[in-house]
Amino acid sequence: MDTKIINDFTTDNIQWLGALLKQGDLVALPTETVYGLGANALDVEAIKKIYLAKGRPSDNPLILHIADKEDIYSLVETVPQIANQLMDKFWPGPLTIILPKKEIVPNEVTGGLPGVALRCPDNEFCRAIIRAAGVPVAAPSANISGRPSPTTAEGVYNDMQGKIAAIADDGSCKVGIESTVVEINDDTITILRPGAITLEMLKEVTSKVYLDKFLIEDNTTPKAPGMKYKHYAPDAKMITYVGSSADIAKQIRDNIQNLDIDSKIGLLISLKTKKILEKNLGNIHKNIYIITFDDYDSPKSLAKILYESLLKFNSLQVDYIWAEGLSSEGLGQAVMNRMDKASSHQIIKL
Ligand code: TXA
Ligand code: MG
Predict the structure, then answer these.
(1) 62 lines ligand 1 (CB under 6 A)
(2) From CA 44, how far away is CA 147, in angstroms rounded?
(3) Which atom from ligand 1 is nearest to the alpha carbon of 117?
(4) Backbone angles phi, psi at 69, to 5 degrees
(5) Is the bond preceding 92 in cis, omega lying within 30 degrees of 0?
(6) pTM higher than 0.85 for the full model?
(7) CA distances from 156 to 59, 69, 145, 194 (A)
(8) Which residue from 76, 197, 284, 303 lies 20 to 30 Å from 334 (Cα-Cα)?
(9) Rounded to whole angstroms, how far apart are CA atoms 346 and 339?
(10) What are 67-83's pLDDT values in tens digits?
(11) 168, 186 Cβ separation under 8 angstroms
């Protein structure tokens, strides 16, 4: 299959991409979080194509993307008041809400679960394509299962070329990590996957906001099946360090001194840490690739480049990745959740 890349969102192109989805083809869509691998959510054969293209376990359910808030009523049994408040406040945006599904939503989409996950993405082209399709669009992140989620069309192409009909290319995703997934029970909100709509932001709607036990304790089963799988893994062994820039720079310098001179290293660090490191490092190692994030609003800056950096390090075939982590507050919670997985829980506090 020839995978077409469309970056000119004329009315004709939007209609064409919508028609592909409607007829059961796979189309990668830009969203504000990461690129999604879209399929007609009401078409079981189209859904099966998603699982096949990603190599995804079939018990891991998909998020349904809708163009307009009102579209939710044909897909779920009830919309509690809290859900309405969340939709009004955060949609379109990076918040996924799980509600009891109507019969029309195939079991293949929800992995047999009674709840369906819904989200209205904050990307106007994405919503226009979904509207043109005239159906809800199931879309997991557009990566092969287990790999970092793509935040550019090029990243999608590398994993999906030849497997899908088209990629709608709207440049890089502005958030960079996947949506917050929440479940609603009576008057409480439970966060199953942290994202850019933070715990603090959700608390503006109700004080009863909790984290799924799985996010706090080891050895519990997550309510979002996808959270149990290996995720976001770069090819190289990755370690994340948390501490002051001075301590992180010192640790990296020590690590380098103990390495074989031919090994390749990828560093994902703040600008401040880079400055200190460069002062101390001199010319002791030749194969170092450094990607930096801003110190100002660092969680946002790191979220935006995290997956792209891991994919870059894959293409450079580095042997080690040493990354700088952040405190787990606000958006930092979602960023550290992804870094914890990317580094196979190798987070070291200095
Ligand atoms: O930002 C995002 O959410 C992106 C973009 C493309 O919208 N999508 C995304 O989809 O990250 P995916 O499939 O990679 O992750 C969906 C997560 C998984 O952890 C899955 O287990 C959970 O949401 N999930 C989906 N439906 C669920 C349900 N009915 N009950 C519990 N968890 C659910
Ligand atoms: Mg994913």
Answers:
(1) yes
(2) 25
(3) 26
(4) -50, -40
(5) yes
(6) yes
(7) 23, 27, 12, 23
(8) 76
(9) 9
(10) 999 999 999 999 999 99
(11) no
